[in-house]
Amino acid sequence: MGFLNTFLFNHLRFQIAATVVLLVVEILYFSRPQIKIFSTRIFNWIMITAVIYIIFDYASVYSLVFLDLFPAWLVRLIHQCAIFSFESTFLLIYIYLDVISHNQRRLSHTKRIFVVAIIILSLILVAVTKINYEINDEAVFAYGPMISSITIIITILSIITVISAFINYQKIEMRRVSSYVLFAMGLWFVFGLCQLLLPQILFLSVSISTMLLVLVISLGNPAEYVDKESGAFNYDALKLVISDKIQKKKPFFIINIDMDELSKLRKQTGDKGVIRIYTQLRSFIAEQFNIDVFQLNHHSLTLIFNEHAEKTMEKNLRLIYERFHEPWEVNEQTKIHLNAHVDYVRVPKDTPFLNTDDVQSSTSQLLEFVEMCHTYSDEAEFVHRVNTQLLQNRNRQDGILKILKEAIRSDGIEMYYQPIWDVKEQRFSNCEALVRLKDDKTLGFISPEEFIPAAERNFLIMPLSYKIFEKVFQFMSQNDLLKHGLKHMEVNLSAIESVDIGFPSIMKELLTKYGIEPSIVNLEITESIAIASGRRLKRNMEDLIRYGCSFSMDDFGTGYSNLSQITRADFSIIKIDKSLLWPIFEKKNPNKENARILLENMISMILQMGLQIVIEGVETKEQLDYLCGLGVNYIQGYYFSKPIKEAEYLEFLEQSLAK
Questions:
Q1: Cα Rg for the chain, rounded, in angstroms?
Q2: Which of 294, 290, 208, 233 is nearest to 26 (CA)?
Q3: Best-predicted range by mean pLDDT among 158-172, 452-466, 508-522?
Q4: Are 570 and 542 in contact (CB under 8 A)?
Q5: Strand pairing of 634-636 and 550-556?
Q6: pLDDT confidence of residue 1
Q7: Secondary structure letter of residue 474 according to DSSP
Q8: Residue 261, SS3 per DSSP
Q9: pLDDT at residue number 196
Q10: C-alpha torsion sign, points 586, 591, 593, 596
Q11: Which domains does the chain have, with CATH numbers?
Q12: Edge-to-edge strands, sheet with 341-347
C-alpha cells in the first residue's frame, strides 16, 4: 500500500501543483470587486470548469492507478468528463479572449454557430471515439483517437485566437490586450508541445492553471478597474459596463452625481477630506441601492440601474437629493454642505442619437452626453433631466463639432480684425485677430464662445490654433501691416496651448516661416487661465518674451480679479472687460458710483505698476471721453469698429491714415 501511495503521488504531483496555482488564482480573483459585464461572467465560468477539470483529472489518474477496482465503463466515463471539461475550459477561454479583444462585443452570429458546432463535435468525438490507457512503472496516461481529436480542435481554436490577436494588434487601443493574449497563447503552445513530446507527464492541469494565472494578472485583474482614492470602479470599468448594457439592448438608467465644488474642497482640506466624502457617499449608495459605483471624472460618481429599477428611479433621485441636503463629515470636527447636482439619463428613451449597432461609438457618445448633460440643460434644478430643449442643445453642440472638424480639415475658418485706438498717438496702432467659422448656414452664426470650448473638449484646439496663427501671420506678411502703422497684432491663446510644452517652438517656427517680427505679436491670455495655469504658462511666457513677443491679460475683471497675479506674471498689457465699464453708464443702476470707484481705482493701480491698459466694449462717445480722461492707453469697441474681414480692415486702416 505504501508503494501504491508513493506511485499515486508521483503521478499526481502536477495535479497538486496545478491545484495550488488554481487556488491562488481563485483567491486573487474572487476576493476583489467584480465588474458585472459579459467577460466577467465568462471568466467566472472558466474558473468553475477549470475546477471541474482538475477534479476529473485527479479522478482519471486515480482510476488508472487502481484500474482493477473500477469497471471499464466508469474509467472511460471519468476520462470523457476530464477531456470534455478541459476542452470546455479552453473553449470558454477562446470566447473570453474574443470578447475582451472586441470591447465586450458578443460573439457574431457566425462565431456562435462555430462555437455550437465545436461543442456538438466535441461531444460526439468524446462519446464515440476510442481511448487507450498506458500503465507502467514510470507513467499512467490516456492516449488514442479521443485525445488526438480534441487536441486538433483545441489547436484550431488556438490558431484562430492568435490570428485574431495579430489583427487586433494593428489597432493602437487594442495593443495592450492583444499583447497579453499572444503571451497567454504562446504559453499554451509551449505546454501543448511539451505534452505532445512527453505524453507520460500530465502537463494539462498545470497549463490551464498557469494560463488562468496569466489572464487574471494581465486581463482579468479587477484591481486595475478600481480607483484608489474614491474606492469606486474607474472610468475604464464604466466604459465596459456601458458597452455591455448597450449590447443587451435593454433599457437602463444612469444617475451621475456631480459634486461641483470637490476640487475647491481638495484645496481646503487636502486629499483626506475628499476621500472621506467619497467613503460616506459610497456607504450611502451601498446602504440605499446596493449597486456598483463608478467614477466618471474627478468630481462625480455614476450609478447604473437595470430595467427592473424603472419604478423606483424617482424614489432613488429623491433619496440622493435628501442626502445632499444633509452635512458631510470632512474630519472629526468639521461638517459641510456639499454643492452638487444629478444628471439623470434614461437609455434608450433619452438617447435617440445613439446608433446601438456601433457599440464602441455609442459607448463614447453616451459617456460624453452624461458628463456634459448639465451644460446642455437650461434648468438650475438639483436633478437635470433630459428634455426636448436639452437634446436640441446637445444636437447643436454635436453639429458645431462636425462643422469645426470640417473647418479644420478644409480651410473652413476665416479671420476678422478689430482695430484698437491708441489714445496717445490718436491712431489705430493695434488690432485684435478674431476667428470665425465660414459655415454660417448649417446652424447659423456660431460664436467663438461656443466653438472654442468645443475644440478644447475634443482635442481640436491645437490644429485649430495652428491654422489661426498661420492665417494671421500670412495676412500680416502679404500686406506688410507695419507700413500701415501697426504696432501690435493681438491673438488669443486657449488654456491648452498656453501650457503646451511645444507651443513656443510652434510660434517661433511660424514667425520665421512668414518673416514676422516677434515684437509685433501680442498673445492674449484670459485672467482665469493665467491664474489656473501656473508654472508651465510662466515658462512658456518667459521663453516667448525672450524671443521678442509680448503678452496681455484678457477679460480682466471677469475671473478671480486677483491683482497680485499681474505682478507675478510677465504681462505688458491688461485688457479690462466691458463688464466693469458698462455699469457706470446704466442710468437705472443704483450702484453706479461703486462701479465708478472700482474701475477708476483699478485703472490707477495698473498704471502705477507700469502696465498699459486696453478697455474693451466701448460703444459711445461719452464712454470714450471718460476713459481718455482716466489715462488709459488703448480703446477697443464698436464705437470705432466691429470685427471686420481682411479687405475691410485694410481699407479701414487706409482711410484712417488719410484723415
A1: 35
A2: 208
A3: 508-522
A4: yes
A5: unpaired
A6: 42
A7: H
A8: coil
A9: 72
A10: negative
A11: 2-223 (1.20.1070.10), 226-386 (3.30.70.270), 398-658 (3.20.20.450)
A12: 293-297, 300-305, 252-258, 341-347, 383-385
Q: Tell me the residue type at 510.
A: L
CA 641 – CA 376 distance, rounded (Å): 33
Q: Which three cell numbers stand for residue 574?
A: 491688461
Cell numbers describing residue 528: 482665469
Residue with cell 496702432: 429
H/E stretch holding 573 = strand 573-576
CA–CA separation, 542 vs 551, rounded Å?
Answer: 10
Residue corresponding to grid cell 475647491: 264
Q: What is the pLDDT of residue 559?
A: 55
% residues pLDDT > 70 (the chain): 93
3-state SS class at 55: helix
State the average pLDDT over residues 81-91: 90
Question: Distance of alpha carbon 380 from its chain centroid, rounded?
Answer: 26
Contact between 301 and 230 (Cβ < 8 Å): yes
CA angle centred on 14, ends 13 and 19, rounded to 5°:
95
Residue 419 and residue 431 in contact, taking contact as beta carbons nearer than 8 Å: yes
CB 84 within 8 A of CB 55: no
Looking only at the bridges linking them, the beta strands covering 634-636 and 413-422 are antiparallel
Residues 6 or more apart whose Cβ sits within 8 Å of residue 504: 540, 543, 544, 547
Angle, CA of 313, 236 and 282, to the nearest 5°: 45
Residue with cell 498689457: 573
The closest of 26, 40, 33 to 240, measured between CA atoms, is 40
98-124: average pLDDT: 87
Identify which of 247, 240, 101, 82 has the alpha carbon closest to the alpha carbon of residue 160.
Answer: 101
User: In this structure, are residues 262 and 299 in contact, taking their beta carbons and an 8 Å threshold?
Assistant: yes
- Give this prediction's pTM: 0.73
